[in-house]
Amino acid sequence: MLPNDHAQTFANAPIEDLLSILLRQLKRPLGTQGFKLTDAEANRLASERAAGKTPERSIELVTALEGIVDESNAVLGEMGLTFESSLKADLSTLGGWETTAEFLDLANEKANAELRITLAAALDMAFVGDERYAPYLLFLAGDDFGDETVIARRILSFVTGIKPDAPDWLTKVRSWLDDSA
Q: Among 14, 43, 90, 102, which residue's beta carbon has the most beta carbons within 10 A?
């Protein structure tokens, strides 16, 4: 989970700022996938996307985001978890550790994989409307996973155009996604 001081930023920031923050948070993982990103380019990509444009390098970005999701899913898979089961998992039931240090490493690896999947799935959908990871975002949006839920809801609202305070918001978003598939 992201630090609590981000909660207000994620909930209230203009979508342009939110997209830029998410891109910058994935700067290192994007780099390992071959997508080099500067802060200025993150701001440009976010600004163009928020304005309704498809920014240059969007396809390259999405390929890198998909690589991040695949890599992170593999990390969770090695723990015997899926993204959804990982978010609900009680860390004390996970094996593979004997010392406190090993437990903390495992917990950190799990949390990082969950966060990378959340951010990459959100950005993938935001930049090209790819619904491949919609189930992840809907899962997050339908529960309370803190900042990850806020991010999922903001991105789903951005993509669908459905206001977050709309009655039956989640039902409307699911219907919109079903109709656009």
A: 43
